Amino acid sequence: MADDQEEDLQKFLNNVDEIASLIQQMNSDDPIIQQKAAVETEKKLLLLKEGQEKDECRTTLNKTMISPPQAPAEVPVSLWSYISRDAFLASVEKDAKERAKRRKENKALAEALKKKGNEAFANGDYKRAVLHYSEGLEKLKDMKVLYTNRAQAYIKLGDYQKALVDCDWALKCDENYAKAYFHMGKAHLALKNYSASRESYQKISEINPKLQTQVKGYLHQVDLQEKADLQEKEAHKFLDSGENTAISTKNVLETLSKPDQTPLFYAGGIEVLTDLMKNCMERTLFRIHNGFSIISDNEVIRRYLSMAGKDVIEETICLSVLKLWQAVCTQNEENQRLLVLHPSTAWLMLSLLASKVLAIQQQSLALLLQLAQTKDGRSLIISHLDLTRLLEALLSFLNFSDKKASTAIELLTDLAVEEGFQVWFQANLPGVLPALTGVLKRDPMVTNSWALCQCIAIMGNISAEPTARRHMSACEEFGDACLDLLAKCEEDMNQYREITYTLLGLIMNLCLQVPFVSEVWAVELSRRCLSLLNSQDGGILTRAAGVLSRTLSSSLKIVKEALRAGVVKKMIKFLKTGGQTASRYAIKILAICTNSCHEVREEVTRLDKKFSILLQLLSSEDEIVVGNAALCLGSCMEVPGAALSLLKTDVVQVLLKLASSDSQKTDVQLNAGIALGKLCTADPRFAAQLKELHGLEILNSTLKYIND
């Protein structure tokens, strides 16, 4: 049947190509080519009719064959001299339109059947999905997506050979169809055709190099499964050799499979089994003898695990199982996968992690840490565990001030760097925000400082993403918790330096979200940061200035408070001695303050009499620094007499060059033009210099932005 279908499809495609070629020849300007095409067309039409008659005898399912015109069985070649070329072309065009109409109708029916198949697939009814996809292919047999969708359903049903056939058909429709190679790779992998699976996946990256990262992951899964397969083959050989340890593992598992024994019977057997798990061979034997199911599906063991150690016997069962899981998962990726994928295990691990019994908590945490040592293990955790429950359980370890808190948050940190965790975090942030707020409300005096610092760092990294930042900034309780923790850390800056530094990083990100939660919050935050400018720590100073560079513009009141707190003098000092980041924050603060407050302009003019610092910044390679320096200089020109100190400088040439530059930051040209305008307004002699430099045209083109 498959051969007949392939023959039909190939014939159909060939006919289309040949007819298109004949039409092109009939339109030729060469009469010889036209006449030859007419003869070939006559033969083609006769062959199509004969082919249709044969097909009708063979099957009635092929509805897509081109319908031949109703012509006599034999047409003399000389008759073509009476048939006009236009009439033939009109006939071909009519036939093409009819076929196009039928194809459009069939495509609509096929799309509807595909939708039904997708719905059945989503509901887990794979047999019905196959039926709908097959019906769709009867309507339109060159619809490649129907083949790959059906292949996917066949894979779910375990019919891998049929899946491969469908992938081949999809590639006949489109030889560069990456989805077909993807399902082909999965089917070959299920059949343990590892080389063929790799070849299929590698074709995807050849077709679309942008998918190389995904392909790398697929190939890694092939390697893991092949490795597991080899382990099992070796384990069977080991078992067949009659080695005592191999037989012991099998016998102990058979003993543990006995139902309705006492809890201590099972606990003892599990401890014996744990001692046997010394190498990869024994761990693989545990797997091939269904060890995970024997332990996890045992009613007695499962009942005691669900109680999470309320008495000594329950605690003994829980601890013995957790230690066994650690033993069988050591350096064995396939065992790790089976453990996490087992229906009851994922839930149990989180329940045991949240146990009130300290020993059970510690062993549960040790198991999760073991899984998280590899990228595959972290992916298993992220994909199959309830991350909200996991996050809350790990954060609860902050109640401990010792190493347990550090260990738990270390695990959270390892997970937080994974893209899958970050995607989950951003999507579920509203639900976990109360738990994060609770972290910020902790007293640093009784909380593990390193663990608290790491938690805040994770929040800071997440807040760099705009959507997450918007949720955090909109939560007034979260913002207030940040302020309260900052106040607590100020009480002993030496002890809480790292927490303060990390917290300021989080707050800097939150301040990118405007408007702020409230002006009151921004004012209070600015006051805290003004106080931190008295610190002797360079990192704290830089980040405090960074926060101020984002909050001062929200309130003239806080600008005046900053002036009284000596912020101008401190920022000038930053510009003289600070690094690139500190200088960027400092000049932005001065630009904001001079733009809104005349007293600040006077203070800058007094402290930098010849504007040597600002002139130096105008030659910086950092365009943000240049733009803010130009804005600050222009604002200072409103101070009476300030422009006189610039008469013997090349400030006009410098500003004119910046105003006419092709800087990527339009603020550079704009602010330089504004500064030129204010300079000329302050003293006509600068206007004369500008005229000599033929710069009035450039100035006029930028002055229109001054009002903006």
Q: What labels would you give this structure?
A:
single chain; 708 residues; mainly alpha; 38 helices; 76% helix; flat
Number of strands: 0
Q: Which shape, going by the Cα principal axes? A: flat
- Helical fraction: over 70%
Q: How would a textbook summarize the main sheet? A: none
What's the layout of helices and strands?
Layout: H1 2-26, H2 31-58, H3 85-122, H4 126-139, H5 144-157, H6 160-173, H7 178-190, H8 194-207, H9 212-240, H10 244-256, H11 263-276, H12 280-288, H13 291-296, H14 299-306, H15 312-329, H16 333-341, H17 345-353, H18 358-371, H19 375-384, H20 387-395, H21 403-416, H22 419-440, H23 449-463, H24 466-474, H25 476-490, H26 497-510, H27 519-532, H28 538-551, H29 556-564, H30 567-577, H31 580-596, H32 598-607, H33 612-617, H34 623-636, H35 651-659, H36 666-682, H37 684-692, H38 696-703
Helix pairs in contact: 1-2, 3-4, 4-5, 5-6, 5-7, 6-7, 7-8, 8-9, 9-12, 10-11, 10-12, 11-15, 15-18, 16-19, 17-18, 18-21, 20-22, 21-23, 22-23, 22-24, 22-25, 23-26, 25-26, 25-27, 26-28, 27-28, 27-29, 28-31, 30-31, 31-32, 31-34, 34-36, 35-36, 36-37, 36-38
Protein described:
The chain is mostly helical and 708 residues long. About 4% of the residues have low confidence.
Summarize the structure.
This protein is an all-alpha fold and 708 residues long. 76% of the residues lie in helices and 0% in strands.
